[in-house]
Specification:
There is one protein chain. By secondary structure, the chain is an alpha+beta fold. Among the domains are: 51 residues, SH3 type barrels (Roll), CATH 2.30.30; 130 residues, Methane Monooxygenase Hydroxylase, Chain G, domain 1; 33 residues, no CATH class; 122 residues. The chain is built from 43 helices and 31 strands. The strands form 12 sheets. A 5-stranded antiparallel β-sheet has the order 4-3-2-1-5, with no helix packed on it. A hairpin with a 4-residue loop joins strand 2 and strand 3. The longest helix is centred in the middle third of the chain and has 121 residues. Keywords: Actin-binding, ATP-binding, Calmodulin-binding, Coiled coil, Motor protein, Myosin, Nucleotide-binding, Repeat. This is Myosin-15. It holds the Pfam family Myosin_head. Belongs to the TRAFAC class myosin-kinesin ATPase superfamily. Myosin family.
Length: 1272
């Protein structure tokens, strides 16, 4: 084939196989290609193969290989790889179905719905499926009344067993409903599979459920196409696996099931599988995803269904248990050097148990294992066996018992008998047979070898002179007696001490000059045979073990004497001539010599046969001139062959035996069919080209119309925007005027506040003067009694003045506080009232401090206020905030220490303090640092805890309290002053009997600032999570197009390290959520916040997935919907697994639904029943975007779509926003009251001071008391 620049080709690279490439330069003797890895390679033209492009394949792959333009090896492999990446495991090659093992469960492909879809559908109309092949065979059997065969082939682990079960499942679906007693025949057919798998399947290196025997399944149908019976035949059970396995393989499944059966295992004195020699040679006892105990009960149920009685079931499991106990019997040297005996008490226990289970004599069992009887003319000679021979004899007995159990009528015959029991006299000859690749059809010995000769004679066919390729020398090398390879192998197996080395040595000595046999270079025992098809190398390591098949007379005598009818039935007594020899040898190789001869006879003759009617019907189209008038079919057949100049055929009496003639005729027919196909393709291509041109022209017209409409719409939009801007300009001018007037009013209010401040200072000075006068009066009272009376009168008068001043002072403080709060909030400056002009003192901004108390108050009241000059207090709080103090018993240490310090320093009762501002500023500084994102969960726990402590322990009802008025006559001046000094709390309305603390305005403002801080931390943490999960969602929105692993992006969540890459994109999201939950738990974030975070995070996931489906058409497909649905099931499982504490009422609202018969759905059904939560605009968007890329099913009807489009156009004129997308929720989903009700109370008394802060003097009180109280 000639290549030119730009041609798409395949090129082979070492280590990579076939890779995609494009011809970059074509030289005379070489081609330069550019590979997909952007490397230039120079190769010979014959080393290249042409390649189909993804555009040629219509999506990158085809469901039938015959649709490939270039049907070559890389093209086939590439097509299978592309389909496998989309979970399309089935692909046609004409009528052949290729299945690639997915190594995972795909239940949606094999349910009853799928079987109903393929029922009665012609092969190739739907996607490739094993059900389609089964249905085609079934329909051909019913329509043609002829038996059909399905051949399932493949290497180990390819899925032959599972495919066979699926075919049987489909056949029982379409041909079921015929019942036998209370058990339907289809049930018996299906349940025969788990029964045979339990006793004949085992784990190998490549397959967890590998069939270790050949199986021929025949399912029989009656005239109406219903299952009427079945027969199952088995071949070549791997007997050696019973006694010898290698790691990581396993023995047959039934042994492990019996050991895990619980009470049944105890009944047979069985323990764990690891305690038995036949099972513990490998350390693999369990299979992933399989429970041995459950499988045991499934096996027993299958026995019930196929009709095995409970008594025989017990006998079967007793026999299995006896085999396991038999393997644990060990031998020690006896009295003589070549004798043996039971080793110890443990071995004796297993021997006694095995004898009890076999129901035979224990002494006879010992004798059978440790000796051998040889019958001669002179009498019986008993030969003792050494330890090695006794162990080999034990293993031979175990293999023989298991093989009889498997092959004899109690297992396989039970299945065949039970399934055949439903056959009646009305049974037709139609049957459907399933053939596995790994068995040999032994019926060919009799049928082909005898019937071929008889048929040729009856048909008067001269076949003795037919030439065929003579491979006789190879056959003689393999099977000729007495020195063929099989004969030498049988001879070696008859001697116990023979090994594969001695066998190989003898074989090389006898065939050293044979041209067909060679000795390999790097092995002394391997050999190579040159067959007709090529050379094959054989390894002799296990030749002897695989070929041995002894029948020991002592074994048969032992078990035929069993008191158990089941066991004795397995071993019928041998005839007298068999007893004379202890061994009756039968090799595996000797059983199949007849097969080779039968095949040779068949190939040497005329394997292709047609009746005259069939031949004429098939090939008469080649010679239409011979069909004129009446004709004889035999004469017409000869005329066709002579006209086509074909020979090497013979006309029989009843049927024509054809070979080369048939092949040539078939080839010519295929050529005609190919030409017809090419003509059809050319015509279809021409029609498609014409249609594409028309479609392009229509699209151009539509685009021009759309551009015109868009231009008109743009002009109208510009006009509307100008009107809107003019309106906005007028509004802005009015707002500027209002702001100017508000500014003037604010300046006047500030002047009034300044006057109030000056007035308070003057009152404070007067109060100080009065106190001095009282002191002078008290000193002069001791001089004279007369002066004292005068002074008392003056004092009473002064006390009254003092009360009035105190009352005025309180009123001024209240008015000052109201004015300051109004100035701080200023909700509407138009509604502000002018304060009395007599208050000329200015009030400072409320964010830093509040107005001070009058200076004339006593020193006792001033001592209540926290002293802000103590810089040490600020340093302690700063360290509590900057350092990670951790948690004690789930309680944040930093929050508890800060609250205890503020409570002890009486900061909450202070009317003027900046300590709260320092706390808020320090927290904000920490949240602005480099590691701020990592500390967000930690500070969410601390700030919320501190806020809840303030919410529960502070009260603000004493903020506007006034002092109580009392009569001053009884106590006198001195008593009243002392009373005032000792009870300063009553001046601010605080009652010592209440457990809560009276909070002043700075404390209330601090609580509001702390609330804003909590909301800020929560919002920042939520936004960070959305940013980190967005890349993971982007790769999950659309199904991957290849199996090539994409490197996972590391995600860094708050306080969490980089995540490792995962093979599954959805698993990355699950890992991200698990890591998030671990971080929140480590920082003891309250479950209230966790629920809110998870709810908003999943809401974000829903919105992103839904919007992506509506924006990207490649995402809005059937296959992608299945992919997204599978991923959402992982998230739903994660929600279910999380405890109720953290996932209460968190659901995934976004779900995907598969709707069948979409064209029959009306608009009302879609809006009310199917999609009630979506708007018409969103439903219309989905219907216009969706396409079925898998089954090519039709969508919603055009009438419904047109109705929705009309509704959308009408709504467009009324709606403010025409978007069909969902908006993300950025609100804070809680309030301060929610926190106080949802978060439990915190007992901060037992939180100790960290050692790093114990050296500060200001916090020594925390070391002296458990529950700090405010200082007095």
């Amino acid at each position: 084939m000639s290549y030119r620049k730009g041609s798409k080709v395949w090129v082979e690279e070492k280590g990579e196989g076939w890779v995609e490439a494009e011809v970059a330069e074509a030289k005379e003797c070489a081609i330069v290609v550019l590979t997909s890895q952007r490397r230039k390679v120079t190769v010979l033209p014959e080393k290249l193969l042409p390649r189909d492009t993804d555009e040629d394949l219509g999506g990158g792959h085809v469901d039938d290989m015959t649709k490939l333009t270039y049907l070559n090896e890389p093209g086939v492999l590439y097509n299978l790889k592309k389909r496998y990446a989309l979970n399309e495991i089935y692909t046609y090659t004409g009528s052949i179905l290729i299945a690639v093992n997915p190594f995972t469960r795909l239940p949606h492909l094999y349910n009853e719905y799928m079987m109903e879809q393929y029922k009665g559908v012609r092969l190739g109309e739907l996607s490739p499926h094993v059900f389609a092949v089964a249905d085609a065979s079934y329909r051909a059997m019913v329509n043609e009344s002829r038996s059909q065969s399905i051949l399932v082939s493949g290497e180990s682990g390819a899925g032959k067993t599972e495919t066979t079960k699926l075919i049987m499942q489909y056949l029982t679906f379409v041909g079921g409903r015929a019942a036998l007693d209370d058990r339907t025949v289809e049930q018996q057919v299906l349940e025969s599979n788990p029964l045979l798998e339990a006793f004949g399947n085992a784990k190998t290196v490549r397959n967890d459920n590998s069939s270790r025997f050949g199986k021929f399944v025949e399912i029989q149908f009656d005239a109406s196409g219903r299952i009427s019976g079945a027969a199952i035949r088995t071949y070549l059970l791997e007997r050696s696996r019973v006694v010898q396995i290698t790691d990581p393989e396993r023995n047959f499944h039934c042994f492990y099931q019996l050991c895990a059966s619980g009470k049944d295992a105890e009944l047979y004195k069985l323990g764990h599988a690891s305690s038995f020699h036949y099972l513990n040679q490998s350390k693999t006892y369990d299979l992933e995803g399989t429970n041995n105990e459950d499988e045991y009960w499934k096996t027993k149920r299958a026995m019930d269904i196929v009709g095995i009685s409970r008594k025989d079931q017990d006998a079967i499991f007793r026999t299995l248990a006896a085999i396991l106990h038999l393997g644990n019997i060990e031998f020690a040297p006896g009295k003589d050097s070549d004798s043996s005996k039971i080793k110890d008490s443990t071995s004796n226990f297993h021997l006694q148990t095995a004898a009890n289970l076999f129901m035979c004599d224990p002494d006879l069992l010992v004798s059978t294992l440790c000796s051998r009887s040889i019958h001669t003319r002179e009498g019986i000679i008993v030969k003792e066996l050494d330890c090695a021979a006794a162990a080999a004899n034990r293993d031979a007995l175990a293999k023989t018992v298991y093989a009889r159990l498997f092959d004899w009528y109690k297992l396989v015959s039970w299945i065949s008998t039970a399934l055949k029991a439903s056959k009646t006299t009305a049974l037709s000859s139609s049957a459907l047979t399933l053939q596995m690749k790994n068995f040999s059809n032994t019926l060919m010995r009799h049928h082909v070898f005898k019937m071929e000769q008889e048929e040729y004679k009856s048909e008067e066919i001269n076949w003795s002179y037919i030439e065929f390729i003579d491979n006789q020398d190879v056959l003689d090398l393999i099977e000729k007696k007495p020195i063929g390879i099989i004969a030498l192998l049988d001879e070696a197996c008859m001697f116990p001490k023979s090994t594969h080395e001695t066998f190989a040595t003898k074989m090389f000595r006898n065939f050293s000059s044979h041209p067909r046999l060679e000795k390999t270079k790097f092995s002394e025992t391997d050999f190579t045979i040159s067959h007709y098809a090529g050379k094959v190398t054989y390894q002799t390591d296990s030749f002897l073990e695989k070929n041995r098949d002894y029948i020991v007379a002592e074994h048969c005598n032992l078990l035929s004497s069993s008191r158990c009818p089941f066991v004795s039935g397995l071993f019928i007594s041998l005839p007298e001539e068999s007893i004379r020899s202890s061994y009756k040898f039968s090799s595996v190789a000797s059983r199949f010599k007849g097969v080779l001869e039968a095949v040779r006879i068949s190939l040497a003759g005329y394997p292709t046969r047609r009746t005259y009617a069939e031949f004429v019907d098939r090939f008469a189209v080649l010679v239409p001139e011979l069909m004129i008038g009446s004709y004889d079919e035999r004469t017409l057949t000869k005329g066709i062959l002579e006209k086509m100049k074909l020979d090497n055929f013979q006309a029989a009496n009843e049927a024509g035996a054809l070979r080369e003639a048939k092949n040539k005729l078939e080839k010519k027919m295929d050529d005609l069919a190919l030409r017809l196909t090419l003509e059809r393709r050319l015509r279809a291509a021409s029609e498609e080209t014409k249609s594409s041109e028309i479609l392009k022209r229509d699209k151009i017209i539509e685009s021009l119309s759309a551009e015109c409409a868009a231009a008109k719409s743009a002009a109208q939009n510009e006009h509307d925007k100008n009107l809107l801007l003019r309106k906005q300009l007028d509004d802005s001018l009015r707002e500027i005027t209002m702001l100017r007037s508000k500014k003037i009013m604010t300046i006047e209010a500030e002047k009034e506040n300044s006057n109030l401040k000056n007035l308070v200072e003057s009152l404070s000075m007067k109060n100080s003067v009065l106190e001095k006068e009282l002191t002078v009066a008290r000193k002069s009272s001791d001089d004279t009694m007369e002066k004292l009376k005068d002074v008392e009168g003056k004092c009473n008068h002064l006390q009254q003045n003092l009360d009035k001043l105190q009352e005025k002072l309180t009123n001024l403080e209240n008015e000052n506080h109201v004015l300051r709060q109004k100035a701080f909030n200023m909700p509407s400056m138009n509604n502000l009232s002018v304060a009395p002009k007599k208050l000329s003192e200015e009030s400072p901004p409320p964010t830093k401090y509040l107005a001070p108390l009058p200076q004339t108050l006593t020193g006792s009241r001033r001592s209540r206020m926290p002293v802000e000059r103590h810089e040490e207090n600020h340093e302690i709080l700063l360290r509590c905030i900057q350092e990670n103090l951790g948690f004690k018993d789930g309680k944040p240490v930093a929050a508890c220490i800060i609250y205890k310090c503020l409570l002890h320093w009486r900061a909450f009762e202070s009317e003027r303090t900046a300590i709260f501002d320092h706390v808020i500023e320090a927290i904000n500084d920490v949240l602005k640092g480099k590691e701020a994102d990592g500390r967000l969960p930690y500070w969410l726990s601390n700030t919320s805890a501190l806020l809840c402590l303030l919410q529960r322990n502070l009260r603000s009802n004493g903020l506007f309290a006034t002092p109580s008025r009392r009569s001053g006559g009884a106590l006198g001046l001195g008593g009243k002053i002392v009373q005032t000094l000792r009870s300063p709390s009553k001046l601010v309305g605080r009652s010592d009997s209440l457990p809560q603390v009276d909070a002043r305005y700075p404390a209330i403002l601090f609580k509001q600032q702390l609330t804003a801080c909590v909301e800020k931390i929560f919002g920042q943490l939520r936004d960070n999570l959305k940013k980190e999960i967005s890349p993971l969602l982007n790769v999950c929105i659309q199904a991957p197009k290849s199996t090539r692993g994409q490197p996972g992006k590391a995600s860094k969540s708050p306080g969490i390290g980089a995540q490792p890459a995962s093979n599954s994109n959805w698993d990355n999201i699950v890992n991200f959520l698990d890591l998030l939950m671990d971080t929140l738990r480590e920082n003891h974030v309250p479950s209230f916040f966790i629920r809110k975070l998870i709810t908003q995070l999943f809401s974000f996931i829903n919105i992103q997935l839904f919007n992506s489906l509506l924006l990207r058409r490649e995402c809005c497909t059937f296959s992608n919907g299945e992919y997204v649905k599978a991923g959402l099931s992982l998230l739903e499982k994660w929600i279910t697994d999380v405890t109720e504490e953290f996932s209460s009422k968190v659901y995934i609202l976004f779900s995907l639904r598969v709707i069948h018969q979409k064209r029959k759905k009306t608009l009302e059904e879609i809006r009310q029943d199917l999609c009630p939560s979506l708007s018409v605009r969103q439903i219309y968007r989905i219907c216009s975007m969706y396409w079925d890329d898998k089954y090519n099913t039709q969508g919603i009807s055009n009438e419904v779509v047109a109705a929705m489009r009309e509704m959308v156009n009408k709504d467009t004129q009324n709606l403010v926003s025409n978007s069909f997308l969902l908006d993300d929720d950025l609100s804070i989903p809680f309030s301060t009251e929610d926190l106080s009700m949802a978060i439990p109370a915190i007992d901060y008394a037992d939180v100790d001071l960290p050692e790093s802060l114990q050296h500060y003097t200001s916090v020594q009180f925390l070391l002296r008391q458990q529950d700090p109280q405010p200082v007095q």
